[in-house]
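Much of our argument rests on the idea that a fold can be written as discrete symbols. Part of our work consisted of pairing the sequence of a single chain with a tokenised description of its backbone. We regard such an encoding as a compact summary of how the chain folds. The amino acid sequence and the backbone structure tokens for this protein are reproduced below.
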Amino acid sequence: MRQGDVSIAAVLVALLALVVLEVLAFLTPSVPPESTAVVSPQFKIRLSEGSPSKTPGRAPASATPLTDEAAPRVLASLPKPTGAPLSKVVAPPSIPPPAGRVLAAFPAPEPPRPVTVRKEVLRIVRHAPEGATQSASQVSVTFSHPMVTVASHDDLAADGVPVRLQPAPPGAWRWMGTRTLQFTAQKPFPKAAEYNVEVPAGTTSVNGVKLSRAVRWKFRTPALHMECPLAGDERVGRRPEIVLRFNQEVDRAAIFSRLKATAAGESLALEMVPNQDKMVVRPVSRLPGNCRVRVVLPAGAESAEGPRRTTAPQGFWFKTYDVLRVTEHSGPVEPDESWSINFNNPLKQEPFRAEQVRVSPPISEMEVSVSDDTLFVEGDVRPSVKYSVTLAPEITDIFGQQLGRAITFPVKVSAR
């Protein structure tokens, strides 16, 4: 090897080393001077600022170029290589370049997902009303597909509708858009009736989708129900007018013919009282005091609106007022507490007078007042005194009954 070749090889080695260092510097995060960067678990590189070396380098070894005659002898002294001859090592064939210019998105788009195709069918999305309802004035049906083309309301109303309503009160069908059909009655649906609604099988939308089977449902309005304001009252007159209220129109004569009444367990005869606005009945004869009366409308009563009859008896009770009496009065009271005296019937405020209540020993600044069925006594009451209260026989209730006799009772006032 000639001296010039050796110099060129040294320069190439130096350039290669510089390239390697540059690559390592690019791949390795920057670190401050005199720090150590780990390139790999097995190999470390220390980087520092370059400076001229103060130690003289070693002199290159002396070398003598080989002559053309010596080179074969040196090569022959080297050990022979093992393995397959280099001439038999064949590299895999390269992929031929594409012909022309190929345009493709990178990265490649995802393949389309499989789409499940369902067979379209016409469905009833919602409908109303259904079952028991307190009142109804409309029926609505909404389909899953458009049933009519967009047109004026008058044009849509003129077309036939795919819904059957039985029985159908006076009213009109109308499309609310292209999928919802609505029936509006001229007045609320008659009560005591059951209504059947059907959308027939084969009903077809505008795009040809059909209803596979008929859809049916029912709704019903309330049956007849009777109420009375006197129900549960225990202070009713001896010949009261009994007002009967119903939740719908009735045939008063038909209802009266079915009414049953008893007084103290015995049959009670009733009569109709003429009244244009409401149904009123009353006993034919005057009732005794403290008498329990029961009025019953048996099952099977008819409404004047619909065919449904009542399925159970309906009724109420009340009691006539009793003779006037004291039911309760104050016991031991505080000095600053008012006294109360309770009666079984409401008291008549006129002509009540404070003189009808006497207290002994007298109470200064005494005041007596009436509220419904209660008398109140207030005044300058002394502690630890037992008073005596006397009620006059002339005290009268709202039914005109007097107490009839004087009643006296004690009231004890506690100490302060």
The helical segments are 3-27, 70-77, 153-158, 252-258.
